[in-house]
Amino acid sequence: MIILGLNAFHGDSSACIVVDGKLTAAVEEERFRRIKHWAGFPEESIRYCLNEAGVGINEVDYIAVNRDPKANFTKKALFAFSKKPSLKLVADRLKNASRIRDIKSILCETFGIEKQRIKAEVHNVEHHIAHLASSFFVSPFKKAAAVSIDGFGDFVGAMWGMGEDNSLKVRDRIFFPHSLGLFYLAFTQYLGFLKYGDEYKVMGLAAYGEPEFIGDMKEVVKLANGHAGLNNGKLFELNLDYFIHHSEGVTMTWNDGEPKMEPVFSEKLVRLLGPDRKKGEEINEKHRNIAASLQKMYEEAFFHILNHVYKETNCPNLALSGGCAMNSLANGKIFQYTPFKEVFIQPAAGDAGGAVGAAFYIWNHVLGGPRSFVLEKPYLGPGFSDREIAEELGERGRELKAENCHIEEIDDVVELCRRTAEYIAGGRVAGWFQGRMEWGPRALGNRSIVCDPRRRDMKDILNLKIKRRESFRPFAPSIHLEAVGEYFETDYPDPFMLKVYRIKPEKREVIPAVTHVDGTGRLQTVRQEDSPLYWRLIEEFRKITGIPVLLNTSFN
Ligand SMILES: [Fe+2]
Questions:
Q1: Distance from the CA of 116 to the center of ligand 1, in angstroms?
Q2: 259 and 358: one domain?
Q3: Both 419 and 547 in a single domain?
């Protein structure tokens, strides 16, 4: 049984392939197009997934898409009727929805084959159901509460339910325009970070401020307090006076390139907090404090939802998904502020992951296939053989020579790791490229830049020479799984770098380059059986320095 999963005509366009219930390949289209968050039809990703599985498009049994334009139709229609959105916005949405409905024709055009040769049925899976499925069905849990929080998709901003064996039951939805993702987006834009997906920068900035605007934030987001219900009758709602997405619509660009979203905050927000930060304007204390207040309010709302879901389900396991599940700062506090005992978040928790969710929803829930796959390793993307790499190096021989590059083949794995570790311990920066590419936005030891976390100046060296990014953004540690409790206050695995834990005070001085200003670190735990070569590199570094930690950052 072959299922092709897609996230198409949306940010973080992606594809995956599930063969007999096993995730064989998954990749984001941005990796081929070299434009972050690339939106459009994931043609290259589909080609790669089919190749990896060794099948043609005509052999695929089901195509699963993480959008269903028919879902929540009545809600959508009533909303449109009451708001009378602009004709252009309606036309844009209809065009996007019609492309989602007509995936088969687009595939035929792409692969140059006739429609009848594609036997696969196309299944549209509601956006948030695909999110829930993307985490629960590939989690190690037999039973779990599943929660999805994002901007919005198919007219919903959050959803939760219960997963058990191969079925998923939705318990509630919070409908557009109420959304924690849009709340975070509005303030990200207000703070002058206007690119799609910039929320993580504001998260990094939050550590430098004090949440002195929390009172204002509570004006903007309302949490249901016991029996005092909210207008929408749900767990939270936005004070829509501070937003324009409900009145003027969210102006989005989802076509063959970088996705764009126009600002969603209103003039009233500017009256509340003063002028928004303009492009190029220096970041001041007020901006930092607004970022800290935003993060604090998000966390209050997040734990409010999680605690409610726990009360409803009484299940100690949590499968988390949606763009907001990339908020690693909040994720790292789940054990502290909720009764959940186990948490699973898959590496592409945002919209890219919807491709996996849609595919597994068909395999498990619709077809009743058994649970037979746990996403333990993120290495699901393209890999290259030694021969291919040698050929590439040969083709680029001249360029490499001009840069004084020296090429040497080291067959002995331990020797390779030992020499690289020595090089790193000597203060140099290494590019580490091996095996298949990571699924999800993080570099996790197969496409990573690695260096010494002990050096305080390493952050500046990296920023100056390679990354050229904002100085307030932290760098992350990769750590042997067995050493987590020695370095961090929380001893729980996080192989996908999606949780921030507090570093033990006595260790902060030991690994300053990966300790954020608030004493935290967004760690990747490395287990020998998941990533033997990367584990070995850290081991060789530990033998030299006594520290089982490396600074790990991505090539982009
Ligand atoms: Fe989403």
A1: 32
A2: no
A3: yes
The answer to whether the predicted template modeling score (pTM) of the entire model surpasses 0.90 is yes
439 CA distance to ligand 1 middle (Å) = 17
10-residue mean pLDDT series, the chain (556 residues): 96 97 98 94 97 96 94 81 68 74 88 89 96 98 98 95 98 95 97 94 94 97 80 89 86 82 93 94 96 98 97 97 97 98 98 98 98 97 95 93 92 96 96 97 97 93 81 92 98 97 97 95 97 98 98 93
| Ligand 1 center from residue 127 Cα (angstroms) | 6
Is 124 within 8 Å of 108 (Cβ atoms)?
A: no
Q: Two tokens at 149?
A: 């929080």
Q: Where are the beta strands (DSSP E) in 325-456?
A: 342-345, 430-433, 447-451
Q: Are both 328 and 201 inside the same structural domain? A: yes
- 349 Cα to the center of ligand 1, angstroms: 9
Residue 307, burial from CB neighbour count under 10 angstroms (0-12, 13-18, 19+): middle
Count the residues in the chain. Answer: 556
How far apart are the C-alpha atoms of 525 and 321, rounded to whole Å? Answer: 20
CA distance 309 to 298: 17
User: Tokens representing 208?
Assistant: 């430098």
**Pick from 133, 3, 122: nearest CA to 60:** 3
Radius of gyration of the chain from its Cα atoms, rounded to whole angstroms: 23
Cα 498 to ligand 1 centroid, rounded to whole Å: 17
State the pLDDT at residue 247. 80
Q: How many domains does the chain have?
A: 3
- Whether 337 and 450 map to the same domain: the answer is no
Q: How far is the CA of 51 from the centre of ligand 1 (A)?
A: 27
Q: Which domain holds residue 407?
A: 399-434+442-554
Cα 355-361-366 angle, rounded to 5 deg: 140
Residue 140 located in a structural domain: no
Q: Count CA within 13 A, CB hemisphere, residue 16.
A: 32
CB 15 within 8 A of CB 371: no
Cα(131) to centroid(ligand 1), Å: 7
Domain contains 29: yes
Which residues contact residue 104 at a Cβ distance below 8 angstroms, ignoring those fewer than 6 apart?
A: 63, 115, 118, 120, 122
Q: How far is the CA of 236 from the centre of ligand 1 (A)?
A: 18
Query: Does 520 map to a domain?
Result: yes
- 56 CA → ligand 1 middle, Å: 29
Same domain, 323 and 358: no
Output the CA 306–ligand 1 centroid distance in Å.
Answer: 18
134 CA → ligand 1 middle, Å: 11
User: How far is the centre of ligand 1, averaged over its atoms, from the C-alpha of 508 (Å)?
Assistant: 35
477 neighbors 524 (Cβ within 8 angstroms)? yes
Q: How many Å lie between the centroid of ligand 1 and the Cα of residue 118?
A: 28
* CA 136-139-145 angle, 5° bins: 40
| Ligand 1 mean position, distance from CA 155 (Å) | 10
Determine the distance separating the centroid of ligand 1 and the alpha carbon of 371, expressed in angstroms.
Answer: 24
Q: State which residues have CB under 5 angstroms from ligand 1, the bound ion.
A: 150, 153, 351
